[in-house]
Amino acid sequence: MRRYLYVSLVAAFAVIALKLGAWRLTGSVGFLSDALESLVNVVAAGFALLMVAIAGRPPDADHPYGHTKAEYFSSALEGLLIGFAALGIAAEAVHRLLAPHGVRAVPAGVALSVLASLINAGVARWMLSGAHRLRSIVLEADARHLLADVWTSAGVIVGVSLVPLTGWLWLDPVVGMVVAVHIVGEAWRLVARSVDGLMDRSLPASDIAEVDHVLQGFRSDDVRFDHVRTRRAGTRRFVSLHMHMPAHWSLGRAAHCRLRVERALTEHIAGLVATIEMLPQGEESLLDGGRPDKPGPPADCG
Q: CB under 8 Å to 244, separation ≥6 — which residues?
């Protein structure tokens, strides 16, 4: 994952240099807004590297489930940063709308912006493939931001190119304001997704279906499953469930059966951690509706 983020960081520096060059050549607020959004990519990629390093730490006494949720802070910060960038873009656009002036050297500025967009598009597609393979919200957030940046740049290029053709000086700041609104929407989606992740959202429907498919292979008159719960934390997936077996089975036989189920689940779903509670048929834990006053078979618990 760090390899993707290092490439993203290097690309971000190259892209912002090109876009700042386009702004300096043309004096266009549209190109300025595009450059400010790309500036966020530099900060976000650097912070993402830090969060990935934290998320990669092994579980410890204070964090027995690991540190993978740190990834959500990265995408949340990226959303907040581009939100602030949108406010700056909107303020400059309003100022330019009240005091409009023309743009210059448009062909050279457009050429630099197109080159920057091609770099962003190539890196974004590469990162999306990595995000899908690694199941990483950090890579996905960064990649989708880059793709949004590409579409933003396309709109800016068209808008700025029309200014000298039409003589509409107001078009340049209006393009900047449209970019600001678009960025706000992207920021909201990133922050909302990060908060959703921190709230222990269940696994995607495809993963839940895979869990059910695996369990179906072990269901029988003797074995049944219930109280299946899933959650995700960064790149890791968690499932907990109850596995009911006949009370007369030996502990060794029950444990062997449970181990087979756990192995099948973790082999079918990458990054899955399975917690399986063994219970005799007809019994439930107190947490899931069992009755504390219900008599059970005598046992010596030490």
A: 223, 224, 225, 226, 279, 280, 281, 282, 283
pTM (2 decimals)?
A: 0.60
pLDDT for 183-222, tens place per residue? Answer: 788 778 778 877 777 777 888 888 899 999 999 999 999 9
Pairing of strands 224-233, 272-280: unpaired
Interhelix angle 106-134/137-166, rounded to 10 degrees, is: 160
What SS3 class is residue 272? strand
CATH of domain 2-198: 1.20.1510.10
CA–CA gap between residue 159 and residue 153 (Å, rounded): 10
User: Which residues 6+ apart lie within 8 Å of 221 measured at CB?
Assistant: none
- What residue ranges in 143-259 does DSSP mark as E strands? 224-233, 236-245
- Identify residue 179 by its one-letter amino acid code: V
User: Could you read off the pLDDT of 242-288 as tens digits, one per residue?
Assistant: 999 999 999 999 999 999 999 999 998 877 889 999 999 877 765 55
Range(s) of the chain covered by CATH 3.30.70.1350? 205-283
Would you state the torsion angle of the CA atoms of residues 120, 75, 130, 121, taken in this order, to the nearest 10 degrees?
-10
